[in-house]
Every structure is written in structure tokens, then in C-alpha cells.
Amino acid sequence: MSDGELPCASPPCRRCKSYPATLKVRLEPVCESCYGQYITQKVVKRMVTALKEVRAAAGIDRPQAPPPPRYLVALSFGASSTGLLHILHENLRSLRERNPRVAYDLTAIHIDTDLSDHGDAAEPPDTPASRLLRTYQSRFPLASLEIVPLTAILDAPTMDWSAMPPRDSSLPPAAQVRKLLQALPSVTSRVDVLRIFVRHLLLATAVEKNCDALMLGSTTTALAELTLGAAAKGRGLAVPWLVADGPFPFPVPVAAAAAPLPSDAAPGGVVEEIAAAGVANLNTGNTRSTNNEGRTVPVYYPLRDVFRRELLAYNGMKEVALTDLVVEGESSATATVVSHKELSIEAVMARYFAEVEENQSNVIANVVRTTEKLMKVRGDQSCSVCGMTLDEQGDARWKGEIGEIGENGESHERISQETSTSARKLCYGCERSIRG
Amino acid sequence: MAPSICAGCKSARAVIKRPKNHHKLCKACFIAVFEDEVHHTIVSSRLFTRGERVAIGASGGKDSTVLASVLKTLNARHDYGVELTLLSIDEGIKGYRDDSLETVKRNAAQYDLPLTVLGYDRLYGWTMDQVVDAIGKKGNCTYCGVFRRQALDRGAKMLGIKHLVTGHNADDMAETILMNLLRGDLPRLSRSTRIVTGDDSSEVKRSKPLKYSYEKEIVLYAHYKKLDYFSTECVYSPEAFRGTARTLIKNLERVRPSAILDVVRSGEDMGRLVPGIAPTGSCACSSTDALEEEVENSGCGPKTGLAGGRLAGLEIRHKEHTTGNGNTMEADLTARISDHQGTKENSISKTATTVSGGQKLGRCQSCGYMSSQTFCQACLLVESLNRNKRGTQI
Ligand SMILES: [Zn+2]
Ligand SMILES: [Zn+2]
Ligand SMILES: [Zn+2]
Ligand SMILES: [Zn+2]
Description:
The structure holds 2 protein chains of 2 kinds.
Chain A: E1 23-25, E2 28-30, H1 32-58, E3 70-74, H2 79-98, E4 105-112, H3 128-139, E5 144-149, H4 173-182, H5 187-208, E6 213-215, H6 220-232, H7 239-243, E7 246-249, E8 296-300, H8 308-315, H9 345-359, H10 361-371, H11 392-402, H12 413-421, H13 428-435
Parallel strand pairs in A: 3-4, 3-6, 4-5, 6-8
Antiparallel strand pairs in A: 1-2, 7-8
Chain B: E1 16-17, E2 24-25, H1 27-44, E3 53-57, H2 62-78, E4 83-90, H3 98-111, E5 115-119, H4 120-124, H5 128-135, H6 140-158, E6 163-165, H7 170-182, H8 186-192, E7 196-197, E8 205-207, H9 215-224, H10 240-255, H11 259-272, H12 293-297, H13 327-342, E9 353-354, E10 360-363, E11 370-371, H14 377-393
Parallel strand pairs in B: 3-4, 3-6, 4-5, 6-8
Antiparallel strand pairs in B: 1-2, 7-8, 9-10, 10-11
Helix pairs in contact in B: 2-9, 7-8, 7-10, 7-11, 8-11
């Protein structure tokens, strides 16, 4: 619309002075176009950093004209990852037009967490996710979109099942995974382990497809939730790995990748957390080495400077119009609480930060900026479920200080039975989620 | 449904399910386990040395009452050889401490422990009521917070005791950890998770033997042991994040009861990841510790404002404080305080040492309390009160 149309209804944009201001950047009234630029620039800034790091990691042995980097976007079909895909897609379009030299290959992967039985049909079924994927593909023609079912976790090369409860392999894959999750002690455990599975599949897909980096759609708000959520689940040591940009340890055995799939699971559009990452140097000096030792996958959060409400405003702009496309999951911050037993820690955090975002968004930005500064430590031994470093010394100290009573005290039989078979290689957070 | 059998003795009927691990226990086994765990904490952290004199900060509330009872029991049972004494503070607010001080006096008799009650008049030369008379009720929250923060340390020092134990529980710890995350204060996150704060160079070291004990279990313990405690309502309104952090902790606990302990574990681990913090072993006594630390951990204690020593936003709801005179001095005082804060970064006292996180800490030249300034806030406030008193007398 032209600036003549709305003489006084909307003041003119403070930035371009030509279009009516319908949105705000902080307190400044701006038009949609300027708002879009504002959001996009934040993302592009992060992408430039990612490109530099990816190029540097690729080595100096490619003097000129390196091949375009390959980025894998985790797509949950939620608002954040959809918004990210849109921003990257628009960015890619303009790069290809104007500056192909710095363009990239864009792949988006959805981990389909639908575990109902149709997922096991022999032919690629017409699942809700695959239908949605086709809609997305037509909206984002420059990207290549794929689905990986959650059941791929059963064959994921990164998974070590020895510490998990036994599976019934006579069941179809979807039922196996479903039963496994249902058997976990709480809603929080299920969400936690599900996220870990999704992260496994994302990382494995990134490796399988030879991608240079995995792009996750978490906003600042989501990263703050992630930080406090991880802390509340006993995953404090993993926080810097989970929140900061940069190399993420590839879980255990990287054998020639089998079939994993990626996705960004959580219905709210935030995918990140999934795996807790490790600790290090805190370990005892066990130097058992694996063939993947030290292997990492670069992970970036290009939306890390964008608040959730800012992204929602972006998605709702006329030119962007993603709101109808996005699938919002049940566990959004506004759903009614039926019973606290049915809530996950993630849901509690989402509610909490939805409130904080309204009144004190600086707190959210502060949480993320601060926790990014924590040191990443990595030891020799990783948790067999989440892949993060084990902290045996910390575990021992903790047991001592807390005074957990062993044999004659209370019933640890349940635990000791389960652990006797496996070498008990779970981090504190996974131990809590899997064993209660 | 058949009643559950106690997982400990396998004979009695279980009456409680422990929040932190779901174990179902009978009353006797619960009491034993609760005490054993505190004992474990004390031993593995090497909290006490034989012959040491230890002051228990006693408010008459459940936490400090349980702490006194458990320490008395464990000291006898395991022969720690420490000399325990109860230390209570009387702010000098007419009527406010009457019931809780009576409770502490009964506790002293019940546990056969010596008790010292120290008033603000002895610690600072002013009771809170006198402060209110002098400056009016609006500014006194500043005094209450600052005075309260130091009161136990000053008291212990006055008694010649170098080790002060307080009743902070796991809920308090978890709350403090979340609060420090929310305000992005990593150095304090690191300090506040330690069981012992202060070291040989501090005049008074502080420790928290109940830091892994759930508030719910403390209440149960007090209930089953029929302890005599006074349920005080907190008279301070929580500072900005303290309130929301507490609500958040309660919500997390409802969703997953182990969350409180899980937060504590995370906080300790994250504390080790703070750049510039030397790793500590199980006995974290090497920390040079800071002044606000205690404030952070007291669920119902004195509060500071958001950013470290800022004093803004404090509020107290003593009903008694209805006097309304002397407003001018309040303004004067506020100016002094903000001035004081403004110079915080620049003025480094000669005795300053760099502690974890790069914060400069030294000692108040007047009272010796940890301070980043030449004089601590309490001494500044007292000085300001005295100065104004002299002024009005002339
Ligand atoms: Zn504009
Ligand atoms: Zn783990
Ligand atoms: Zn029993
Ligand atoms: Zn002083």
C-alpha cells in the first residue's frame, strides 16, 4: 500500500519514512518491509559467521571457489523452524540472483514423530507429515525437503541401546518405539528422551548427507527455555553444548551411517535440545577410544537473536504469510493445564518464559548470553544415550554428599538389576529420565 | 490396595514416599535416613573439625530448628566433637520476634544447647524501631536488608565463633540457582552452590548442612520428631526474581519431584563451567567468598536488589512500622547509597583480592566484613544514622 493511503491512521515507518508503520522494533514504529529486514539481518549475521567457521573447518586446502556449503535445517513444522526456513530460503533466493558465490545448498529435514501404526506400512504412506511436506516443498522450491521417521532411531548408528530398557523386537518399529517411550517414568522423561532421539537423527542425517552444519530454529526465547529446562533435568553440564553455536559432539559410534533421519521434533517449533552434551575433563582418566572420538557436527541457531514474539510477528506479515502453514503443537504455552502430572518440564518452562517474554524480554536475552559463556568440557567417555560426556567424578562426589544409601538402606535393587547388565554409562540427566 | 511396606526395614508400614527418589518408608526409617544423609553430607564435605565451636543461626523456624535438632543428634551419635551453640538475632522490632525468640529459648532447653540472643542495638547500636523512628518507615527496608545480612556474622564474631551453620535447604539452593541463571550472574551461581563459603582468611565461615534436604522432608522430620518450631510468615516481599524463581521451582517439583535436586546438581556442575573458576573438590573450602552470598540463599532472609549490591526495590511489610517521620534523612541516605554504588567498579580497597569471576572483594575497614568498598554497607548506614543523630542533637 502506498504511503498516501493512511494519512493519520498509521504513522509512517520511522526507518523508511514511506510505508505505514504497523509493527515495532523495540519502541520504534516500522513498516512490514523494514521489520522483515530487521529480522532477516539478525539471521544473516549469524549465517555469515557460520559460513566463515564452516569454511575454516573445511580447511585451507581449497584455495579458490570452494563448493557451496550444505546446510541442514531441522524442520518441525512449528513456527520457529518454519520461519527460519523462510528466512533462509528468501536469503538463498537473493544470493543466487545477486551473489551466487556465497550461496549454499539448503536441505530441510522433518523427523516425523508420529508413532501410529500406519507409519509401518510398506509403501511410503500418505501420512499427515508427508502431506504437509508436499505443501512446504511447493512453498520452498529452492530447498530440498525430506522426512525421516522417528522409528529410524532403531537403526541409528549413533544409538547405543545397552543402557535402555529392553525392546520387544517382535513388534513393528513404531510400536517398539512407542512402548519404549510409554515405559519411561514420566511425561518429562518421555519428552526428554524423544528430544534426544530426534537430535540423534538430526546429527546422523547431517553426517549422512555430508552437510557442513545443522541449523536449528530455536529463538532466543526457546534457548532460554532450553537452558533452564536442561538445568531442571540435571543436565547442567550439557548446557553450553546445547545453547552455544559451534561443534556438537557426535554421539558414540559413527559407523558408516545407516539410515537416520533428522527433524526438529517439538511441536512448539523448538527443536533443539534433544541431547545433552557432555562434560569433560571432569572425568577420570579412562582413555577408551572409539572410532568417532572427538567427532563433532557444527550446530547453529540462526534465530538466537530473535525473540519468539518477533518471529511470530515476522511469520504473520503479509509478504511472509506463514501463519496458516505452521502447525502448532498441543504443548504450547497457552494450553490449559489439566494436571501437573501431565506436564513436562519443557511445558513448565514454556509457560514461564511466555510470561517473561511479555514483560522482561531482556531477562531472556540475558540468560542466553550468559550461559553461552560457560565452558564446554568434553571427556573421554560419553553417555550412551545422549552422547554427552560422562562426569564420573561428579557423580561419585554427588552420591557422597547426598549420602545415597546403598545396599542395606533402601531398595536399590531395581536399579542395580537394570544396571548390572550394561556398564552403566548414563549421565545424570539420562539416568533420571530413563530410570526415574 | 494393600498398604505399602517400608523399603528400609521391610516390616513396618510405609507412611511416606520420599520426593527425591520415591522410596516408601516408615516413620523410623525415614528419620534414620534423613539423619544419615545429613551425616553423609557433613562427613564427605568435611564440614567440621573436632573441637570446633559452631554457631547455629536459629530463627525458631522449621529449617533452623531441624538443623539444631539433627546436629545435636549427630554430634552425639557420631562424636564429631564440635561445640554447638544457638545464635539468634533480635532486630529490635517491638513484638515481631517475641514468638520466635520464645521458640528458640524452648529449643535451647529441649536440645540442651547454649543460646545467645543478640540485638541490633548491640550489633549496630540501633534497633530497627529506633531506625524507623529516625528515618521513617519508607527507607528502613534498606537497613533491614543490610543489617540482617550481616547480623549472624557479626554475632558469631562477637562470640568468638568462626563457623556459622544455617538452615538453607535444597529448595532454597535450587531457587538461588535459577535466580542467578535468570539474572545472568555466573560468579554468584558458582559461589552460591558451594556448601561452604568463606575460608580460613574469612573471619566467619558459613556452611549449609541441609543443602540437599527437601523442604518437604524437613517439615516431615519436624513433624515426626515433634519438634517445636514457629511458622513465621516471611515479612519481606521477595525481590524480583526470588519470587518467580520460587514459583518456578514449585511448579517444577510438581511436574517431577526430583527436579529440585536435579537443579542443585545442575547448578553445581554449571558452577564448575564458569570461566575463571578453579575446579574444587568435594570440599569447596578454598573459595574466597562474597558478601551477598548469604543473602542469596536465605529463603526468608534479607534481600538485595537485582544487580548485586543494588538496594533498590526492597520492601518490608512490618505492620508495626507505621511511624512516618524523618523523611529528609531518607533522601540523604538514598543519595549516599547510590553514590556508593556508582563508585563500585573503581574503588578497590587496598586489601582487595580477586575472587572467582573477577569480582574485587576486600574487607570493610571498620568491621572486617567482606566488602568491595572501604566500608561495608552496614557500616555506612550506621555512620549515616549516627551522623544525622548528631545533627539533630546540635
Ligand atoms: Zn519502513
Ligand atoms: Zn545422557
Ligand atoms: Zn522402616
Ligand atoms: Zn563494616
